[in-house]
Design brief:
Blueprint (H helix, E strand, L loop, with lengths): L1 E2 L3 E2 H19 L8 H13 L3 H13 L7 H21 L3 H13 L7 H12 L6 H10 L4 H22 L14 H7 L4
Antiparallel strand pairs: 1-2
Helix pairs in contact: 1-2, 2-3, 3-4, 4-5, 5-6, 6-7, 7-8
Length: 194
């Protein structure tokens, strides 16, 4: 068995089981209502056993006050543990999805200082392996958008403004071939909008 990001065998099964069980307790099923307390306990147990994704989930729980009071210090501690575990795993074997997640942590300063250069480095590694979300993340960072949702909404006007600014900034460069196509459909594909 192999899942997104290259997880294989038992690790893939454990990841899927954790994610599925967490989801069933968080959101409920057709046969049972959500159980926030059980979801919290499952995530905490997994996090304490070394599951980096569960550690990240615990950071999110404390950061957003899900099932508990907001506690930014506890959130950062869980995020630090998650980032450390992710970097450790990545050091042993490169995994595309993990590279993407590490990039997101640096992007938003989760468990570390916000570092967009480091985030872009991790996103670039994952993009080189064609992770489905990374290219849009990179375009979003280049355009200075706060989120990929913003990029999906404003990419075309932002690209037009960027092109105009670049053309005005150095007229000598206007003779060079542009790095982007003039075809709107091709631009939309590059930006992940189509």
């Amino acid at each position: 068995m192999m899942i997104q990001g290259g997880l294989k065998g038992r690790k893939a099964l454990k990841f899927l089981c954790y994610d599925q069980i967490k989801g069933e307790y968080l959101y409920g099923t057709p046969d049972s209502p959500p159980d926030a307390e059980a979801a919290y306990e499952i995530m905490k147990e997994e996090a304490e056993s070394g599951n980096a994704y569960a550690m990240h989930d615990m950071g999110k729980i404390y950061s957003q006050g899900i099932f508990t009071e907001k506690d930014q210090q506890a959130a950062q501690e869980w995020y630090q543990r998650a980032l450390s575990a992710m970097l450790h795993v990545e050091g042993k074997k490169s995994q595309t999805y993990l590279e993407y997640r590490i990039g997101k942590m640096y992007q938003y300063g989760l468990g570390t200082d916000e570092n967009l250069t480091e985030a872009a480095r991790w996103f670039s590694m994952a993009a080189g392996k064609e992770h489905k979300h990374v290219e849009l993340e990179l375009v979003s960072r280049i355009l200075g958008h706060a989120s990929t949702q913003t990029t999906r909404i404003y990419a075309r006007p932002s690209l037009e403004m960027l092109k105009e600014a670049m053309d005005k900034a150095n007229p000598e460069l206007n003779a060079e071939e542009p790095l982007w196509p003039d075809d709107e459909d091709e631009l939309a594909k590059i930006c992940g909008l189509r």
